[in-house]
């Protein structure tokens, strides 16, 4: 009793921080050494091992890359794993093909240099062969690989000229949902290649693209890529005929003009305009029959600058009077502005004209809806599609 207890000295906070930092650095260095050793071992197995050793190494490469940082992808590439993995794509053994394909996919993700190196190493021809297989799993992995590799600009020309596009189009009809999405995105990547001397798509792509556009949300990124491809196809005679002949082809484009994002509406109205400009007499009635006017009117107010101009041009073409007699600016806009000036003067002309146009859009939509309902009611039971 009464004796003072010795107080335990607490190390300063800075000392604790320095100690913890030192421990962390040691652990990180140990882990980096372990990774370096693992990269060297796996690369050696892929370069010199027998087939089974290569398959196991390829699977391990995929696992390591998935669990670690992006730098590991570069370290594996520097260790020389890409050429032996590409060689395995041509192996008769399906396990070897799958293992190497998954490893290459993971090496390519978020690494532009690896994407280019994989194509340079000769991956495209065996990937095209994999797209021809009846094995759905390998075929869709090859589609994913084409999508990933085509995202790098230097690769687009080699892939576009490889003959991959027709097989990607087949995926649009027969693949899984993910396979179809990957195929559309890959085809869109390839369609943006400026070095292409000929179009990568032909009219056979129209029907599956229209069917996919029917099913997807019109404002989605997928719809934007899809309509971009359809707009490109509409520039050829065969493409225009295919759009018209495909069940619901023009109607689906009209619905996209009404419900799509800024970009998908721009592409959709571009496709409709291509049709009407190529032969006004042939396509005007088809477009009007599907109730295009409300969506086009709205687009002249709410679309991108390109979409607005296209919508105005198409509205002029859809009028009863011949194209030669069209006025500039659009008769519709001039009519609206004249009314607005008389109603509220020049100060509020823009707001008034916009409000009048929006009211007209609303009334036109109601009339279009009534026409569609009347048309449906007049069909016989045999003509009504089942749910």
TrEMBL record:
Could you tell me which residue ranges the U-box domain spans?
183-326
PROSITE patterns given in the database record: ARM_REPEAT (PS50176)
* Keyword Repeat assigned: yes
The signal peptide here is: none
Kindly give the Pfam families that the UniProt entry links to this protein.
Arm (PF00514), ARM_PUB (PF25598)
> Its domain of life?
Eukaryota
Which InterPro entries does its entry note?
A: ARM-like, ARM-type_fold, ARM_PUB, Armadillo
Q: Where are the ARM repeats?
A: 80-122, 122-164, 163-205, 204-248
Q: Which UniProt keywords apply?
A: Repeat, Ubl conjugation pathway
Query: Does the keyword section mention Repeat?
Result: yes
Q: Which SMART domains match?
A: ARM (SM00185)
Q: Which PANTHER family match?
A: ARM REPEAT SUPERFAMILY PROTEIN, U BOX DOMAIN-CONTAINING
Query: What protein am I looking at?
Result: U-box domain-containing protein
Protein source organism: Hibiscus sabdariffa (roselle)
Q: What is the lineage of its organism?
A: Eukaryota, Viridiplantae, Streptophyta, Embryophyta, Tracheophyta
